[in-house]
Structures are given as structure tokens and as C-alpha cells.
Write a structure and sequence with these properties.
The protein has 2 helices and 11 strands, in the order αβββββββββββα. By secondary structure, the protein is α+β, with helices and mostly antiparallel strands.
Length: about 220
């Protein structure tokens, strides 16, 4: 994993370690090409990672990062699921934080409305800039975070722990992404393995403080240089 990605992710997620209401997190590591397309070049995986972290009974932080995309590879579309017993249209995305120069995505919400190639239908579609302009695309080593809330109700990371609606013969998966500019100028569709991230601990807070100290020192030295 690249040092810049570690620093960026730490700076974005550090406040979560100290928030008294943090309840847990879900993490999806997208590490497998499922459509028969061309996978990203790096043998180190996951290429893209999605994490939902509960901040309070009414808010969740969504963090998306690309620790192992390379070169001009970029996320064109990210597909996520939501609890079908709740109205996905009531989700609110706010307070975007980004590490990188990419354009923020267009956020689309609709129950089982967005189909990933060869897989099923998803409820949330983040539509990023298409490949071709590195100053606009969401690519190598970049990080994006949003604070999510739900109009008129509570929200937890478990509300995103759902599989796609079957359609297409592949999957279902917990998430999917379309990656452009893979080797040979091609593209591919990637899906995750599912894992649960333990709740923050005292040791985690100490390690985060250490990483923050090192991170700010690294960034300061880079700026001075």
C-alpha cells in the first residue's frame, strides 16, 4: 500500500477513532474482475476499497479509496446496495472530503435501479468522470469520503450490508465498480470480498495518533522540499 494513501486515509478517518458514538464498520475490498473484461494491472489487492463507518445513531461515513490502482486507471462507476425495506431516496450525502484533484461524482439513488455489467441491480450509483482527463478522474491513490444520513430516521453501517438484486448471471455482490484504462486501454468490472472491521480500540487510537504525527510530518517535509 502506498504511503500517501495510508496518510490520506488516516487523515480522513482519524476522527472516527475518537468519536464516542462510533459503533462499527463494514469494509468491502474490490479485488476480483467478474465480467470477462481486463482487470487492473496491480497484483496487490484490493484495487478499490469501500468502508461504511457508523458515526452516531443517525450518521454513517462512506469512504472510498483506490490503494492499488495504477497509472491512468480510474473508477468510472461505483455501485452500492441499501436496505430494501427502507427508502433509498431518503439518503443524504453531505460534507464531501477528497484527497486528489478528481471531480466529485454524480450521486444516483433508486431501489434496484442501476445494473452493473454481468451482475445484478444496485440501489446507489456514484457516477465519476470518464477516463481521459487525469485531473478529473478518480484514480490511483485517491480518497473520497461523505457523511451519510437518512431523512426522518436512524442509519447504521448494517443498512449497506446487502447483496445486489440478481440480474445478469454473475453475483450477487455487495458492491461493484467499473474500472477504465486497464492494461491495453481496456476496462473491467470488479467486485469485493466481504469483511467486518472491528470497532475502534484504545490501541487503534494510539496507532492513529502516531500515524497522524508521521503523516503531517511527511506532508510538511514534502511541502518544504
Amino acid at each position: 500500500m502506498k504511503l500517501k494513501t495510508i496518510i490520506a486515509s488516516t487523515l480522513i478517518t482519524a476522527p472516527l477513532w475518537f468519536a464516542p458514538d462510533v459503533r462499527g464498520a463494514l469494509s468491502f475490498g474490490l479485488n476480483s474482475e467478474f465480467s470477462g473484461g481486463t482487470a487492473p494491472a496491480s497484483a496487490i489487492r484490493p484495487w478499490t476499497e469501500v468502508t461504511f463507518t457508523s458515526l452516531s445513531p443517525s450518521s454513517v461515513q462512506l469512504t472510498v479509496r483506490n490503494p492499488n490502482l495504477t497509472g491512468a486507471e480510474n473508477v468510472h462507476g461505483l455501485y452500492l446496495n441499501f436496505n430494501d425495506s427502507r427508502a433509498v431516496g431518503n439518503l443524504v450525502f453531505s460534507s464531501p472530503i477528497r484527497t486528489g484533484s478528481f471531480d466529485l461524482p454524480t450521486i444516483n439513488l433508486g431501489m434496484n435501479a442501476y445494473k452493473a455489467d454481468g451482475d445484478g441491480r444496485y440501489d446507489i450509483f456514484l457516477d465519476f468522470a470518464a477516463g481521459g482527463n487525469l485531473s478529473k478522474t478518480f484514480g490511483d491513490d485517491e480518497v473520497l469520503a461523505y457523511t451519510l444520513s437518512f431523512t426522518g430516521g436512524s442509519l447504521a453501517e448494517s443498512d449497506f450490508n446487502f447483496l445486489s438484486q440478481p440480474a445478469g448471471g454473475k453475483g450477487p455482490f455487495y458492491a461493484a465498480a467499473h474500472i477504465q484504462n486497464t492494461p491495453g486501454g481496456s476496462s473491467g468490472w470488479i467486485c469485493p470480498n466481504f469483511s467486518v472491521v472491528p470497532e475502534p480500540s484504545t490501541l487503534g487510537a494510539v496507532l492513529t495518533c502516531s500515524l497522524l504525527f508521521v503523516g503531517f510530518g511527511f506532508l510538511r517535509r514534502a511541502k518544504t522540499a
